[in-house]
């Protein structure tokens, strides 16, 4: 077994029959840290291996499974309510990521958990949608004027909304990536959606993969990175033959998402042994970029692991911070990024000082 025992088990579930008690402890801890505990249950159950799991370990897995099932029911209920709202607005409800996987019963819904519901709407109707959602009980969680400006002027979404009684968090996007430094026409996404029910749709199977890849490799958010990479592994595994692979490559070029697709295929193959045809060339690096590619291999393999002390290595934090800085440079030009980082740093220092003063008084 390696340091990242969770990855070992996801790749070869049958090795659970060889685990010692201490290894089970590491596996459960890593799976919980990666938000993959319920998926681990699903995989063991599908492989008819769950019954051989030690009883005291079964409790952890079953508990995670029941929590995920409860969350799936909540997602279906929330989507049904949102669908009514969007029907009144005469706008199709387009789900993204976790909620799309769950509502569409897609491969990546297996044991999938989520913290919010993501939707995509045309930019020209986003104000209309936001006003109606406010009447339905959704309020902005970002009350600071600067944060409001940051989201509305520079990001691909409005500030997150939260329902005042149900607690549901809703992210309303008008694009799948910030577009200050990248050109991605969201109208192309709406052209190829898959209808799931009368007024609810998800992105096409190619766009779902490309969106997940773009989010993982361009947003700089890695606490759930291993889970998101495993989502991609499951989605890639459902592509049928060379024709599908050529189509997704063409779609990535059309949407200007060639690099995220390259990283997704590279690290799925590297970490999860995903069956990706060698003859389909996804390489976007030239020969003289090999040093940069090796550096990125080190950075991404550091962070695409469970964020638990038993799995991380000495320079994990350095890799995480480096990729976070990279993500900021991908989002914004330096003339906007520099004052933004300065502002956020000052705010963090002030908040830290206030917290220490409260702690001292108490």
Average pLDDT number: 90
**How many E strands?**
7
Q: Could you say which overall geometry the principal axes of the C-alpha atoms support? A: globular
Q: According to CATH, what is the topology? A: Beta Polymerase, domain 2
How much of the sequence lies in strands comes to: 5-15%
- Structurally, how many domains make up the residues? 1
Task: Give a brief description.
The protein has 362 residues and is an alpha/beta fold. It contains 15 helices and seven strands.
Commentary on this structure:
There is one protein chain. The chain is of the alpha/beta class. It has one domain (5-331): Beta Polymerase, domain 2. 58% of the residues lie in helices and 7% in strands. The chain has 15 helices and seven strands. The chain has helices at 5-11, 21-33, 37-46, 55-89, 97-103, 126-135, 145-154, 187-191, 205-218, 225-236, 241-254, 258-272, 290-303, 316-331, 334-361; strands at 93-96, 117-120, 138-140, 161-163, 169-173, 194-195, 200-202. Strands 3-4-5-2-1-7-6 form a seven-stranded mixed β-sheet. A hairpin with a 4-residue loop joins strand 6 and strand 7. Helix 9 (205-218) packs across helix 12 (258-272). The chain is globular and about 55 Å long.
């Amino acid at each position: 077994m390696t340091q990242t025992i969770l990855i070992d088990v996801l790749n070869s579930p049958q090795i659970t029959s060889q685990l010692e008690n201490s290894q089970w402890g590491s596996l459960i801890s890593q799976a919980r840290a990666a938000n993959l505990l319920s998926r681990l249950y699903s995989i063991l159950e599908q492989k008819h291996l769950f019954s051989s799991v030690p009883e005291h370990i079964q409790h952890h897995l079953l508990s995670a499974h029941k929590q995920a099932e409860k969350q799936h029911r909540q997602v279906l209920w929330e989507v049904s309510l949102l669908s009514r709202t969007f029907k009144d607005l005469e706008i199709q409800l387009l789900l993204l990521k976790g909620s799309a996987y769950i509502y569409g019963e897609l491969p990546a819904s297996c044991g999938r958990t989520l913290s919010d519901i993501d939707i995509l709407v045309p930019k020209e109707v986003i104000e209309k949608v936001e006003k109606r959602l406010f009447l339905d009980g959704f309020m902005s969680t970002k009350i600071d004027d600067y944060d409001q400006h940051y989201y509305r002027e520079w990001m691909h979404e409005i500030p997150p909304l939260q329902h005042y009684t149900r607690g549901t968090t809703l992210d309303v996007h008008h694009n799948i990536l910030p577009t200050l430094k990248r050109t991605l026409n969201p109208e192309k996404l709406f052209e190829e959606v898959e209808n799931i029910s009368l007024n609810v749709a998800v992105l096409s199977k190619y766009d779902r993969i490309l969106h997940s890849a773009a989010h993982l490799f361009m947003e700089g958010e890695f606490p759930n990175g291993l889970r998101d990479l495993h989502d991609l592994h499951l989605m890639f595994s459902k592509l049928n033959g060379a024709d599908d692979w050529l189509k997704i490559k063409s779609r990535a070029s059309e949407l200007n998402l060639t690099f995220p697709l390259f990283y997704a295929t590279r690290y799925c193959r590297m970490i999860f042994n995903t069956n990706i045809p060698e003859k389909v060339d996804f390489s976007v690096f030239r020969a003289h970029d090999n040093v940069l590619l090796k550096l990125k291999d080190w950075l991404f393999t550091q962070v695409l692991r469970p964020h638990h002390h038993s799995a991380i290595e000495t320079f994990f934090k350095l890799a995480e911070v480096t990729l976070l800085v990279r993500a900021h440079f991908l989002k914004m030009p330096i003339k906007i990024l520099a004052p933004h980082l300065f502002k956020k740093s000052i705010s963090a220092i002030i908040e830290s000082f206030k917290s220490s003063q409260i702690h001292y008084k108490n």
